[in-house]
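sry for the spam today, last one i promise. struct tokens for design, 193 residues
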């Protein structure tokens, strides 16, 4: 997806996230799944989210082919953004996606089958991030890590996966934007020569 300007990209992304959050909150209310009460501030949990993000990034950073796919899909749009745009976008994506997947979907399905909830939620997470089969598998694995952060690192707390997701995305956004800008500069230099 490439939009013509920074403003178009940010407007589209903001509207998409707003609609996604609105639908998530409405469905959660209807299904009686608590979301906002499931985010508890804790320095410890914030730190766990930060460490998990770095661990996830280091674990998957060697997959340059996946980063290239993401750069092809989002590089031109992300390269138009300023750092504060990327920070805000990463935070919003972390909140919205974690409310949807770990907050709503996984909690709702876990009423009937906790293991099934873990599997179904993260398969859907992987499929919705699929720009290739390998990318879908990697996203499902990352989703599984985010689920583990939510449920099995202490009391249920969406803060841990929100922080981990946001930081992981921010690192990815910045790297993709920088790599795209570098390729553009290299191409312009080659054209001049």
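last one done:
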């Amino acid at each position: 997806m490439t939009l013509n300007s920074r403003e178009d990209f940010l407007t589209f992304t903001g509207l998409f996230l707003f609609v996604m959050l609105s639908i998530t909150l409405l469905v959660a209310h209807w299904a009686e799944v608590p979301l906002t009460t499931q985010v508890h501030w804790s320095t410890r949990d914030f730190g766990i989210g930060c460490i998990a993000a770095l661990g996830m990034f280091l674990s998957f950073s060697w997959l340059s082919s996946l980063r290239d796919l993401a750069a092809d899909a989002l590089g031109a749009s992300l390269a138009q953004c300023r750092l504060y745009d990327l920070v805000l976008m990463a935070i919003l994506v972390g909140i919205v996606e974690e409310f949807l997947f770990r907050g709503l979907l996984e909690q709702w399905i876990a009423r009937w089958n906790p293991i099934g909830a873990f599997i179904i939620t993260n398969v859907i997470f992987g499929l919705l991030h699929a720009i290739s089969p390998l990318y879908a598998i990697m996203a499902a694995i990352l989703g599984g890590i985010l689920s583990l952060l939510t449920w099995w690192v202490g009391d249920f707390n969406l803060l841990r996966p929100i922080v981990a997701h946001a930081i992981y995305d921010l690192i990815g956004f910045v790297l993709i934007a920088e790599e795209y800008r570098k390729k553009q500069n290299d191409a312009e230099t080659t054209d001049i020569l």
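The chain has a mean pLDDT of 90. ok im logging off now
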